[in-house]
Amino acid sequence: xxxxxxRRLLLLIPTLLGITxxxxxxxxxxxxDPFTIAMGPGGxxxxxxxxxxxxxxxKLHGLDKPIPVQYLIWLKNIARLDxxxxxxxxxxxxxxxxERVPITLTLNFIAFVIIYAISLPLGVLSAVxxxxxxxxxxxxxxxxxxxxxxxLVGQMFIGYFTGPRFINWFPPAGLSSNYADQLAFFPWLxxxxxxxxxxxxxxxxxxxxxxxxxxxxxxxDNLKMDYIRTARAKGLSERVVVFRHAxxxxxxxxxxxxxxxxxxxxxxxxxxxxxxxxxxxGLLAFEAVTTRDYNVVMAVATIAGFLNLxxxxxxxxxxxxxxxxxxxxxxx
Length: 332
What we know:
The chain is mainly alpha-helical. It is built from 13 helices and no strands. It is globular.
């Protein structure tokens, strides 16, 4: 196992390099640049002065060099954990990420816990009550939730739950109220959580719908196995049969989903944070793409790629822990 882990960790390096090369190339060959976008169509200066200004700004940020040279310079800086400066915010990218990451982590951690707290018992119970009313109703609801696009649901939440025309229960945007800095800790915490209710719901419903469906399918397959009939014939209680035998052997798909769910939720944060104006990594990434803030785009892409690769590695380790029959000796 140790040899396998070392090999996988070494494999992370070229894989992550490949991801950064693709993102870097796509960002650079896309039409437009941050200075043209910021200056707008024409501005207050003539065409000659505008062209000279753009060229000066590109040279200042190293964008006048060939793309391969720009990438090598960026790679050398990344080796020192230097993400460069944001063209839009005129601040170090590392500082921006340090401010935004806790917000996105909080949002995703709450959603992640809710997803598994709902999906695990719901999927198991649906499989145990197969073809009964509970199972049929759960299946219909899960498929309905899975088919709803997040952008539409987010806009509906804002329209129906944040305005005086319908149910004005939740704030429409932001992370806290304007007066939050004047509140004591617990009122401040309640205000922060109240602002997160709708974004967390949007992040949660598709994840728990998909996970519930997968747990139900895995449980149904295992409940039909011979070892389950043998366990029941030995007189074991249904609780022991379901949780100690069937569920334990259905956990592998759950681990696989866990490895990809958290990175997927980070990607989904781009949409959610944009809809609800939550100042996290997702909103930062959206603004960076629309304004061609190259250093921010590369930093976010690198972090997202690393999270995906790390999630897959942790899933392999969890496989071996959950099921001793799985061995990675001789793999790779």
